[in-house]
Amino acid sequence: MKAKAFTPRRLKIALIAVPMLLGIVYYTLIASDRYTSESIVAVKSAVVSASPGGAISLGTGTGLLSWEDTLYLLDYVHSGTLARELNDRLKLRDHYEQPRADIFYRLWPGTSIEWFVKYYRSRVELEFSDINGLLTIRTQGFDPEMAEKLNRAILDSSERFVNDFSHRVAAEQMKFSQGEFEAASVKLQAAKAKLVAFQTANKILDPIAQTSAASALTAELQATVARLEADLKNKLAFMQPDAPQVVTLRDQIAANRAQLEAEKARTTNGQGGDRLGTLNVEYQNLQLASVIAEDAYKSSNAALEAARIEAARKLKSLVIVEAPTRAETAEYPRRIYNLLTLLALCAIVYSVVRLIVATIQEHQD
Question: Scanning 189, 217, 343, 352, which has its CA 20 to 30 A from the CA of 327?
Fold first, then answer.
């Protein structure tokens, strides 16, 4: 066919009139109305305050918006897990597979689950704002009731996801800290029990104090014996050995020496060893173990309190800024906008083709 056959009239019919006629027929007779429901949400961190006494309280004020968790939520809303869950709850496939003339936006029966998930994602629009951290959820349905039901079901599942996720993270952290605290508590109780058993078995409360007291008493008795012996020598210088005062001094010396030997016998183990010294070393080891266990207990208790505060901070909540709405008019398809866009595209294509045809005709002439 020669280029002269492409007259402006024929080009207008082929490139503008026919596409516009097809577009008008599609948008007026075939295209199905699609209603939308919109909601706006965000994930908020808990407000935690700790009193000087160690008590923790969750504040009711406005916490910080968690952008990272909101992005996690965005991925969850578009996940295949949620798509299958919502299909079981709302029978989404039955709704989207209803026989309709609009073959471009319906879900064909018998499609695979992977294709259904892709179709679900195309009917659930998500928009995350980098400015304020808000997530906008728009759901589409062939009737306003289903669009609203789908949006509310997504919010219910999202709230459960946020709660379960934050509680699971907090529980894992608390479980570790609680285990360390319980282990330190068991060690402390065992160390104290060994110390009490030592005191009961040896019938002594504090070997250190007992050693100090025994040393002081022994020194005092030795000093007394030395003083009495010196006094005895003085009296024997001018008295008879059987004088009453001399006999009395001798009895006092014998009594103090007997007491001194008794005290020495109490502080030895029968083989000449230092009994109190041995008990003192063993007691100090047990006491040191008890102090170490108590320090570990205090540290684990402080770590547990810190973990409890940190776990409380990790608790999240879903904030619904705007509840799902029920549409009164269909938002899609945008018939006038799409027809005008089609007209503009057809005009551009017509202009380009017309220019090409004119150039070819000019060269033929």
Answer: 343
CA distance 311 to 304: 10
d(CA 206, CA 191): 16
The set of residues, in sequence order, having a beta carbon less than 8 Å from that of 107 and lying 6+ positions away, is 93, 96, 97, 116, 119
Which of 191-205, 287-301, 306-320 has the least mean pLDDT? 306-320
Top mean pLDDT of 131-145, 196-210, 320-334 is at 131-145
pLDDT at 41 over 60: yes
Output the six-digit token pair for 290. 């008890």
- Tell me the one-letter amino acid at 32: S
Return the bridge partners of 50, or none: 56
Q: What residues contact residue 255 under an 8 Å CB cut-off, 6+ apart?
A: none
Assessment of whether the complete model's pTM goes beyond 0.85: no
Instruction: Give 119: exposed, middle or buried? Use CB within 10 Å, 0-12, 13-18, 19+.
Output: buried
Q: Of all helices (H) and strands (E), which one includes residue 64?
A: none
**Burial (CB count within 10 angstroms: exposed 0-12, middle 13-18, buried 19+), residue 105:** middle
- Region of 133 please: left (phi>0), alpha (psi -120 to 50) or beta: left
162 and 43 Cβ atoms separated by less than 8 Å: yes
**Distance from C-alpha of 254 to C-alpha of 224, rounded to nearest angstrom:** 11
Neighbouring residues of 153: CB distance < 8 A, sequence distance ≥ 6: 86, 89, 90
